[in-house]
Fold these 3 entries.
Entry 1:
Amino acid sequence: MAGDTRVRILEAATDLFGLRGVDSVSLDVIAAEVGVAKQTLLYWFPSKDDLVQAVLVQAATQLSVAIEAAIRASSDDPLDRIEAVVRAVFRPAVRRPSLLGLIREVSRLSPAVGERFHAELRPLVDRAVVYLQTEMDRGRVRRADPRLIAALCYATVTGIATEPEVLRSVGWQPTTAELRRLRTELLAFLRAALAPSLGQ
Amino acid sequence: MAGDTRVRILEAATDLFGLRGVDSVSLDVIAAEVGVAKQTLLYWFPSKDDLVQAVLVQAATQLSVAIEAAIRASSDDPLDRIEAVVRAVFRPAVRRPSLLGLIREVSRLSPAVGERFHAELRPLVDRAVVYLQTEMDRGRVRRADPRLIAALCYATVTGIATEPEVLRSVGWQPTTAELRRLRTELLAFLRAALAPSLGQ
DNA sequence: ACATCTCTCTACCATATGGTAGACAGAGAT
DNA sequence: ATCTCTGTCTACCATATGGTAGAGAGATGT
């Protein structure tokens, strides 16, 4: 069972960190969740910072992979492609609600950890910005600052996926039917926001 | 100077909680920031939970007031009105970046605190949903689920305002000029997302 | 048989944290 | 003058937390 414990620790830590925040989750709690002594955690990850970093890198990798696959599988039309990416992010985010919440934690951690995390995602971001720019030039996406459009799309998706409070405020419930509605509305929202305006 | 200390505690706590998270900020740190003994905090707010609650209620009230004023002062057109609200939220959010970050904390706190916070904002949310519905009926806002549209707008604004990491990822810098650009793009994004589609 | 390596554990420890107890100083009120 | 109330402080405490030291059990290689 080599690595089994390590994997279980990573999964539990991902959920707990993403759900309740890194600082609010103690090593004891994670250990209890995994069903192991705290020492075992510190054997696999020499310090809490190491564990946090490993969790973040793993999350970044998972998202990257899902997104890359969605891009390759999608059609040529930019709005379809963006929809495919959103769907790809939405799926793991729903199966594991802590995933995106985790990313919000980055801003609170040490700059070093944040830097490592960014390095992991940088190529993806850069490509997205370049892609948006070319599609704007071709008139298939509303002309705007591609950097900020990328950030806004990300903020919308992450925001809606990580703020259960907001959805609760408007009477939304986390059922499958409601979830599908939410995804549909999210996609329509983004399509409208990105569609080229008529005067070009 | 009655209440002066109390106010200073509230302000420091708002900033620190919003910036670094409730659990990561100790009473000692807040006390040091205010320049006062920890005991003085516990004199004004009997426990940390009480302080958290007070901070949240104050933030909710501030936002409510700013939004109400913006609504009253705005024109009849729904997109203009929404723009006015966004500007109203954007201003305090920029002056005090911790304000919106604080709201994200709600989901992590005890349900009781969350409930109290929601009660404060509920009327505002309900009115927004009703308003969106009527404007959709009048054909001045893209037809969709008004509850989810409200949540999506909120997620977009909050997301972009509270995720400096994302903006940094795309090379954005927090200068005044860039800030204006961001606000402009955000408003254009929301306008596009909310404008009625042409086939009605 | 022995040594080594891997993995998990129990037993501690130093520090930080939320909170209690109570002293002390100043301002009115009587 | 003394009592009381308000606001701030110092001294302390119980607990939780990240981390260290090192032992024990089982597998593996020689």
Entry 2:
Amino acid sequence: MVQKKNGPPQGDPPPDKAVEPKRRGRPRAYEPEVALGKALDLFRSTGFAATSLDDLSAATGMNRPSLYGAFGDKRELYIKSYQRYRDNARAVMGDVFSNDWPVRRQLEQIFATALDIYLSGEEGPRGCFTVMTAGSEAVADPDIRAMVQNALAELDKAFAHCFRRAKEKGELPADADPAVLARLASATIHSIAVRARARVPRQELEAIVAGAIDMMVGKR
Amino acid sequence: MVQKKNGPPQGDPPPDKAVEPKRRGRPRAYEPEVALGKALDLFRSTGFAATSLDDLSAATGMNRPSLYGAFGDKRELYIKSYQRYRDNARAVMGDVFSNDWPVRRQLEQIFATALDIYLSGEEGPRGCFTVMTAGSEAVADPDIRAMVQNALAELDKAFAHCFRRAKEKGELPADADPAVLARLASATIHSIAVRARARVPRQELEAIVAGAIDMMVGKR
DNA sequence: TGATTTTTATACTGTCCCGCATAATATAAG
DNA sequence: CTTATATTATGCGGGACAGTATAAAAATCA
């Protein structure tokens, strides 16, 4: 009996998402959602260590005290940015992963979507947040490392599911190993993410993807 | 007649490598080679932005002015560290790449050597300098980016050469594409480098490698 | 209107940072 | 022994940094 007092059993008022409940003090001058998006953009371009709170303040339009009030310190903001990135990536990639196309087409779509994510950015290609975080913060910070491990495992699993289904549908030979194919697909993702950061042109990345797909599901 | 005065034509004294030519002033208290090695170790663990000159000074045993005198500013030191890393990697991997074993065995050796490099480190696995630099400095710094691109291309080429030779020796089917296989091998390298940084255990990385080798040269 | 609450805006603190100026030290040459 | 040279050692200075204290502003409630 901790969470509920002896209140009436009728349903709680539904916690409407975007219904502002008439907040009391001075209204905020920012929308947390968009501010977090700006912070994410900046972290993706410059990484954790090279991004200062002043940069973040300028990018979000919030001054430092507001940043602290809304998101906590720099590390917490980084973590929340990463969560946001993952939520977004999951939403975008999830659609492609869960459709019912032939494997080849599905893979083409998955990698094309990944390339869109990695190559976007005004200040240059921003790569993959997971790969960049693995390189910088994951070794020393257990919480962040757990998130990275989770992201890596999730991608492996999504690909494995994809190949397993293709095998069941008879699109792959009987001796194909979905787990191995999945790790190879993930490796291709990691590789194009790294290369994107080095400004390797999209055309070249697409060639890498095409070759990898041929290897995984056979030449067209 | 710029380099040589009208001196006697007898052979110049051979520029012996490790023969100290009786330097003039106070002797250095450090060996540049080992100092650079220490700097490299530190950069590999913490990355560019998160490594301070004080850290470098402590690690190398040189105080800051000596660091500047010997290697230039922080960025130059980073670049020289990276060159050192590449020279070393080339030396170690070059041996394995240039032997004459069957592809499968050669690949096993290559990936095992890479894993040794990526998993070494007292403060945790240090991953691949190229991958880490791609994630951090390569986008914004043209010189460093050129080095990263070079490193990526060099690995691709080494693998391609390896597969081309295997194909000539009849170890691969006639329709095998060495370039595609090479990029897949490189991708596997990048992937285990990323995962190593996330402290994925070696056993798991070895499983990834084994699966990838099976895909590339056929199941044993 | 006046009190309360929540947020914004300014400014401060102590720390760390990079790069360099200066002085001290240790060797070789004259 | 004196001078020249090359390095080490100390420490300074301007600036950026993360985080916070304090004051001003803008809304609701009484």
Entry 3:
Amino acid sequence: MAKPSPAASRQQAKPVEDDRNAAVPQDDERLDLFKFAPFRLNRLAAEVSAALAVEYRERYGLDIPEWRVLATLGFRREACSAQYVAACTRTHKSTISRAVTSLLERRLIERVENTEDRREFRLRLTRKGKTLYEELIPRLQQREREIMACLSADERRTFDRLIGKIEASLDLIQTSEEADAKQAY
Amino acid sequence: MAKPSPAASRQQAKPVEDDRNAAVPQDDERLDLFKFAPFRLNRLAAEVSAALAVEYRERYGLDIPEWRVLATLGFRREACSAQYVAACTRTHKSTISRAVTSLLERRLIERVENTEDRREFRLRLTRKGKTLYEELIPRLQQREREIMACLSADERRTFDRLIGKIEASLDLIQTSEEADAKQAY
DNA sequence: GCCAGATAGTCTCACCTGCAACTATTCTAA
DNA sequence: TTAGAATAGTTGCAGGTGAGACTATCTGGC
């Protein structure tokens, strides 16, 4: 895995004669992926997710959709529908449906028929699910703290605020209540 | 798509009698997904990606790996290997391989044998690829500007700096040269 | 009451992607 | 020199995921 030195393989990157220099984009037309916010956000999110996945996947055998269902149900005091979870987490309803099926089989959640609307079911954590939730959450919060430890308290607040502004401009902000109104997930 | 009012569907979320209140997590043990940085980053990245995808997918029929290959080759002055692109973009080498195949078929990139190391190929944009690149990049940059327009210039700089700190702490920072040394992609 | 349209949830299908095996080639060290 | 390890790139396979069809149910207008 470890390579003797970056230089060893860097030889491959040395310039190759290019007879088309005329068509090479000018500096101001080029785009440095490393400075491109969408790319950086993607990469950062993927890396942070991977760091957390160690906890919920390797330790508890959960995948991301399953963990999102648990997180939503664990946070809310009341039982709620799969549709609600999908809207909250911005995850496709078919993905949530599969996660719910899996969690039901593992007896981590249970569902009760909604007599007022028999199309939907109310989901909630079982005792077993709550135990897992209470065990898992502190681990994830610890991971988050470790990852964000590179920022000062002040920077962290600023970061949250700026993320919030971008979310807002993308219409990503939803309260628990508003999430109920979201469709398409 | 539009629903009469959030309240219309919110009825579903009203509390259900729960005979297990004793096991409900306490406030400080719960985790609000909406305030959890990893979740927010994921959601934000997905949303930003979706906003950009309109440009490269619908307009040019490119998927994310293909666009990343183009972006890497377009930014660099010299031809470089698939391995290099994979390391740069943190994308799995098999994914890059498929993107390269597709781009070769579309004559957007070309590859030349590396006589110094015949295991690898040097990739570079064709004239057609450069034309597409120069057409696409301004559109993507415009999208990025639109998305980030909610931040002031000062906030934008701060945001970049904070993202940079997190990237650094996750060892995500690489210069073009360092990327050559990365394995596993 | 009844029908058209909307909604919750499930399922199939197609696609995408990572893993790991594989080939070809290069490097390393005896 | 040469065998074994490492590397670049490709491909088969399996698992995950979104789109959209489908069923059951609900809502609103007539």
